[in-house]
Design goal:
- By secondary structure, the protein is of the alpha+beta class.
- The chain has a six-stranded mixed beta sheet with strand order 11-12-13-10-4-14. Strands 15-18-17-16-19-20 form a six-stranded antiparallel barrel. It has a five-stranded antiparallel beta sheet with strand order 6-7-8-5-9, covered by helices on one side.
- Helix 2 packs across helix 7 and helix 5 crosses helix 6.
- It is globular.
- The chain starts with a strand and ends in an 8-residue tail after the last strand.
- 47% of the residues are buried.
Amino acid sequence: MTVQYSPLDAVHRALGAKMVPFGGWEMPVAYPLGTIDEHLACRNHAVIFDVSHLGTVHVDGADALDRLQWAMTNDLTKIGPGRAQYTHLLDEQDGSVLDDIIVWWIDEESYDVMPNASNTARVRQAIGGMDTTHERAVLAVQGPQAIDVVNAATGDLGDVGRFRVRRATWEGVPVTVAGTGYTGERGVEIAVPAAHAADLWQAVVGAGAQPAGLGARDTLRLEAALPLHGHELGPGISPLQAGLGWVVAWGKDEFRGRDALVAERQRGVSRVLRGITTDGRRPPRAECPVTIDGQPVGSVTSGNFSPVLEHGIALAFLPPGVEVGTDVAVDVRGSTLSGRVVPTPFVAKR
């Protein structure tokens, strides 16, 4: 596979970022201050992420809505132009999640569909459209001060409501701004033409946003109990198992994978996604076995140290009957972490 690079690659390297492969791209995992510092900066102030590795498939035309309605689980008619929606693309045979997606409904017949990094071709095959990923960069500014920082840098790009979308200009450059993100904090995501990405990045950093990498993005989304494709979603994992039944518009007569999902709803799920907290600073990790009274009951899908809570947290698939408050043990390379099942999110969304 050919490695792909963000339009901001040189900016990250100049800042001393540690670069890692991710979904076929080389992206920054952390800058010199480190993941925990970046994480806390997002919870307390504002950070800026480069999320240009996410795909963009532009779909337009009179039949665009019908194509998206058939392909995706959610119902776009619940919103309208100028809004964004979280949705799933399912496997037609078993109803498992091929990708989880944000759709930016830009105007009456124009949509930007945002797949995960490695799934752009799969999503385009399902919905058609044009892959515009390499024409733009996407900057995500997140944190309680994110809107103020963006406005200080740009004038008014931050003035977009949660899950709202609008076209705007900055320094004469056309951009698309959405009130979306992946941290549990307030924020915006800005799609900017690739040639102008570095200038916009520098402006937002100059206004006070701290650069943050994929490491902090992962710990932030885990504290917010947001799923990551390949961990909480993917082959063999349905929206119902992941606790995301609200993403499914059961009232739609037809969408990919609907029959399989209806059958699963009728028979009941075999496992459900739960939150686990563990004692101490040593983190649980993905694929670690989970036991109750010495009996295997499931495995961790994502686990890490929570910089806010200062102990381990994890998401895990467990039997449906396991209740909040149940004591569990997590086996991490031969050591046992004591823990318990807890409600999610681990850190309240703001």
